[in-house]
Amino acid sequence: MNPVPRILAFDIFGTVVDWHGSIVREVSERHPQIDANAFALAWRAGYQPAMARVRSGELGWTRIDELHRLILDELLLRFGLDHLGEAQRQHLNHIWHRLDAWPDSVAGLTRLKSKHLICTLSNGNIGLLTDMAKRAGLPWDCILSAEVFRAYKPDPRTYLGVAQTFDAAPAEVMLVAAHQDDLAAARACGLMTAYIERPLEFGAGQPKDVSPDPANTLHARDLLHLADQLGC
């Protein structure tokens, strides 16, 4: 019998919200002349290299909104959209604030909240996560972000910071994520881990391998299945 976590901390992009589908839908509508799938994938592909510049010290602490904008300005040139003005660029950059939740997310989180404290643990900044939660109806008890800890996952300060925030032992916290590398880093800090299958995170053209990793505490098809497993 697995111990029961007091706190569930959630990765957001890909785990709770569908970043790829949301970006493809909006970009297709606004800029039908470009390949929205390639645009979405390229924007996300710039995410880790941009954070690496912060981790290495090349950039000082920089919020994800600003990193997304650095990537976006390069993409607009690449995709022939460099004619867009500043207001249009700002609006497009804030697409990350408008991501749609996966169909199970709100109901699953609501059930999980009935027995656990639920919070975000995302590299997204606080304003982004708050706008997203308000729009999508995500019922967080608390919004925590890399911005709070001035460190991007997988820095241990993020995972241990959740425990410290709630005066909890790391073993009382479970990270819920659709990414095995995130979960492995959380386990190394003493957290429990739950893997959520999101086979279409990168779109139907690039299905993900969602095979179970026995190192995880739990493995769930979606957040409703996780709620079933935790008795919520």
Automatic annotation (TrEMBL):
Pfam families according to UniProt: Hydrolase
Keywords noted in UniProt: Hydrolase
EC numbers: 3.8.1.2
InterPro entries: 2-HAD, HAD-like_sf, HAD-SF_hydro_IA, HAD_sf, PGP-like_dom2, S-2-haloacid_dehalogenase
TM regions (residue ranges): none
GO MF terms held by the record: (S)-2-haloacid dehalogenase activity
Top enzyme category: hydrolase
Catalytic activity field: an (S)-2-haloacid + H2O = a (2R)-2-hydroxycarboxylate + a halide anion + H(+)
Homology family: Belongs to the HAD-like hydrolase superfamily. S-2-haloalkanoic acid dehalogenase family.
Family matches, as NCBIfam families: HAD-SF-IA-v2, HAD_type_II
Function in brief: Catalyzes the hydrolytic dehalogenation of small (S)-2-haloalkanoic acids to yield the corresponding (R)-2-hydroxyalkanoic acids.
Record protein name field: (S)-2-haloacid dehalogenase
Source organism (scientific name): Hydrogenophaga aromaticivorans
